[in-house]
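Project outcomes to date are best conveyed with an example. Our students and postdoctoral researchers have been running inverse folding experiments weekly, and each run begins with a structure described purely in tokens. The record below, which covers 419 residues, was selected by the lab manager from last quarter's runs and is presented without edits.
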């Protein structure tokens, strides 16, 4: 019998992986916030004690899971249980010196955003109600994307981000839920800290730590979380009273199983989020991740029905619900438009015979996702993400063409792809 040498072609499009990861992350985020509100209100109703308990339990949970995922399944091929969750992961390891600074800055800004999050949670506000306003981070990240590539947004990008932002504002319009001061904290410290953290995590995720390898999402999550917890605890030291210590010592052991529920959702939220960051633009990841706002609406309704003392009561005003439905339509349409705005392609490159290896130089170009040596007429195969055809010709392709040692190149746009 002749042996089969071709891998069976699946039905999952490669491009779908990016959108699926970002969407799954948004789903986990909505359940994480919902369980946060319930656990805080019903089992550990002190913002500082709850913050310290949840965050340090999250670190221990993450460490335990990663140690389990580090169990090798094939040492020769450097495969472990966790490789199925993240192809770049083999085992728990210290971060590379090339990404240490990015991880520290990501953790510190995440600490600022986390303190703001728990401050809002401790104010008596329904966190699921103010979650939409944290989506201002999309705007900050889009600006960051454009600064990195020194470009202007395309019309479809601008319209998509505007639609998502307008939609989340409509969904979050609940009269009397938060005051102006809390809104400013959410928009600046929470959303701003979150955006800066994502920015530096994206840098760490894309940075090549060794030829052909980047930081995996599991180790990145672990070390960012460690810095986050240290910085958050440092910020909270003046607020750690004897009451907080007593709650952590005597109350936490009784409710630890409840606290682990949002911790679990948060772990998978960030793992899928970081994997998505390695595959696409920061603003696009955050934009698609905004599905959590839409999913937060039915969860808020469930909470208001079954836990009326915890969640905001349902409004009887039909115009209020009309605004929310319109907001959902804007968010979903913006996400779909963002998903359709990106193009991908390959660039075939011929290099000069006396030129040194170009792989590292080409990989550092913003928009380049993968560089491979090939045989035949061409020397290198470069995988690129293209924001638009015009932008690709003006930015990515021009930088590739201007790379010293490139003598000829040909661009191939992907119309349809299967993995």
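After processing, the design step wrote out the following sequence:
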């Amino acid at each position: 019998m002749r042996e089969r040498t071709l891998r069976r072609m699946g039905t999952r499009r490669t491009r779908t992986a990016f959108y699926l990861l970002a969407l799954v992350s948004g789903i986990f985020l909505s359940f994480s916030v919902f369980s946060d509100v319930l656990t805080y209100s019903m089992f550990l109703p002190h913002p500082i004690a709850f913050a310290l308990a949840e965050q340090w339990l999250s670190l221990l949970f993450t460490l335990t899971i990663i140690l389990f995922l580090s169990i090798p399944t094939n040492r020769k091929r450097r495969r472990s249980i966790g490789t199925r969750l993240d192809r770049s992961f083999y085992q728990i390891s210290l971060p590379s010196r090339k990404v240490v600074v990015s991880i520290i800055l990501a953790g510190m800004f995440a600490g600022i955003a986390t303190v703001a999050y728990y401050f809002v949670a401790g104010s008596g506000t329904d966190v699921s109600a103010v979650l939409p306003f944290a989506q201002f981070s999309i705007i900050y990240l889009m600006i960051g994307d454009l600064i990195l590539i020194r470009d202007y947004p395309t019309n479809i990008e601008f319209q998509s981000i505007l639609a998502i932002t307008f939609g989340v504002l409509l969904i979050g319009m609940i009269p009397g839920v938060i005051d102006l001061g809390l809104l400013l904290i959410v928009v600046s410290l929470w959303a701003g800290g979150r955006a800066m953290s994502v920015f530096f995590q994206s840098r760490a995720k894309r940075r090549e730590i060794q030829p052909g390898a980047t930081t995996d999402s599991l180790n990145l999550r672990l070390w960012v979380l460690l810095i986050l917890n240290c910085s958050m605890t440092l910020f909270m030291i003046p607020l750690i009273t004897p009451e907080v210590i007593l709650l952590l010592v005597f109350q936490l052991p009784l409710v630890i199983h409840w606290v682990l529920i949002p911790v679990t959702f948060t772990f998978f939220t960030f793992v899928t989020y970081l994997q998505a960051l390695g595959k696409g633009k920061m603003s696009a990841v955050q934009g698609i991740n905004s599905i959590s706002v839409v999913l937060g609406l039915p969860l808020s309704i469930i909470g208001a029905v079954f836990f009326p003392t915890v969640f905001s009561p349902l409004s009887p005003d039909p115009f209020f619900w009309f605004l929310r439905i319109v907001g959902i339509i804007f968010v979903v349409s913006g996400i779909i438009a963002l998903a359709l705005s990106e193009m991908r392609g390959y660039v075939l490159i011929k290099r000069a015979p006396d030129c040194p290896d170009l792989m590292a130089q080409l990989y550092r170009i913003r928009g380049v996702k993968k560089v491979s040596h090939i045989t035949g007429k061409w020397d290198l195969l470069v995988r690129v993400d293209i924001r638009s055809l015009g932008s690709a010709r003006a930015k990515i392709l021009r930088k590739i063409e201007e790379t010293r040692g490139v003598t000829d190149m040909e661009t191939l746009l992907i119309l349809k792809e299967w993995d």
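The chain is about 60% helix and 10% strand. Residues 1-14 have pLDDT under 50 and may be disordered. The training component of this project remains on track.
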